Amino acid sequence: MAEENVKVLIIGSGPAGYTAGIYASRANLNPVIFEGNQPGGQLTQTTEIENFPGYPEGIQGPEMMEQLRQQALRFGAEIRSKTIAEVDFSKRPFRCVDESGDVVYADTVIVSTGASAKYLGLSDEEKYRGLGVSACATCDGFFYRKKNVAVVGGGDTACEEALYLSTLAKKVYLIVRKDYLRASEVMQRRVREKENIEILFNCNTLGLFGEDGVEGAKLVEFKGTDKEQVFDIEIDGFFLAIGHKPNTDIFKGQLEMDAEGYIKTAAPTTRTNVEGVFAAGDCADPIYRQAVSAAGTGCRAALDAERFLMNN
Ligand code: NDP
CA dist 6 to 41, 92, 103, 215, Å? Predict the structure, then answer.
């Protein structure tokens, strides 16, 4: 079991973590970033990013994250392909243990662990995981060329996933539980203009069926009303796009969180309830959840950590 001391430990590696790494390394704080099991975070699973300032023609998500990573490395951030499994924030330096049992004592910690895709909670999602159920169209869409697929959700992510899949699949059903889409106007328009996307409003998924993989989904329309009807659609792929859950389980009982598990910070700073621990990005953002806002809070967290170290 190895032990070491660091001034700034950054847990997580999306736009928030890498930006914190850029600022902390430029401040000579020798930050160590634990990338976790999805280096680069959620944006490595997306296609084109059109709304990050500075890329007038857009940029692919994985490419942008690699650039952020390189920028952090350039100024001396140390990046490890490991996960922090356990933390003790009860006293400083904070004791953090990685997945292999090695211990990092950190004077400050920046939590930027992001968020993960939510599932509906159906037992069939488990049963067919990897056999037709996915929460990432960019990762798995390729397997559904010329097939029928469904995307669940009515937000920007669902529309983005449906549009991406519509370029590969024969037909895309968009399963929306309300009678409207929550997505931005531009995304709604793009979805409506696609001939091979069919929006199923007022529909919920009851289950999935199939022999060796997904062959269809059982849906209910107008659930709980006198118009209620149950019907099947034939699909080979079932994609979830119903929002995200913050990756904050290991901080439960130590950092204050809201009911959904988002870490509470003292706005406009990134300070948590534990002095010396800061939170940035989606793990502390139930509202905006944008790459650019995550990068912005990553910058703030590094500056907050720097000030904290100066004063302590
Ligand atoms: P959202 O929370 O915006 O949307 C989630 C969708 O899933 C809603 O339509 C919601 O329905 C539905 N949903 C939630 N739970 C269930 C359930 N149990 N069963 C069925 N449907 C369910 O999440 P997104 O991931 O789409 O977006 C998150 C944020 O990221 C937003 O601010 C969005 O604008 C942004 N974003 C921006 C993009 C861009 O600008 N290019 C791309 C992707 C995301 P209901 O409406 O009924 O609650």
Answer: 23, 12, 11, 51
Q: What is the DSSP string of 127-146?
A: HTBTTTEES-HHHHGGGGTT
pTM of structure: 0.80
Residue 294 to residue 105: CA distance in whole angstroms? 25
Q: Which residues are catalytic?
A: 136, 139-140
Which residues lie across from 200 on neighbouring strands?
A: 175
* Whole-angstrom distance, CA of residue 303 vs CA of residue 23: 7
Q: How does pLDDT run across 159-189, given as a tens digit for each residue? A: 999 999 999 999 999 999 999 999 999 999 9
Structure tokens at 212: 């060796």
Which protein residues touch ligand 1 with a CB less than 6 Å away? 51, 120, 152-158, 160, 177-178, 182, 242-243, 289
The owner of tokens 């390729």 is: 142
Return the structure tokens found at 24: 């902390």
pLDDT in tens, 226-252: 999 999 999 999 999 998 899 999 999
Percentages (nearest 5) of helix, strand, coil residues in the chain: 30, 30, 40
Q: Which atom of ligand 1 has the smallest separation from the CA of 244?
A: 25
Element (H, E) at 64: helix 61-74
Q: Tally the C-alpha atoms within 13 A of residue 42's C-alpha that lie toward its C-beta.
A: 24
Query: Which atom of ligand 1 is found nearest the CA of 184?
Result: 34
- 238 token code pair: 């079932």
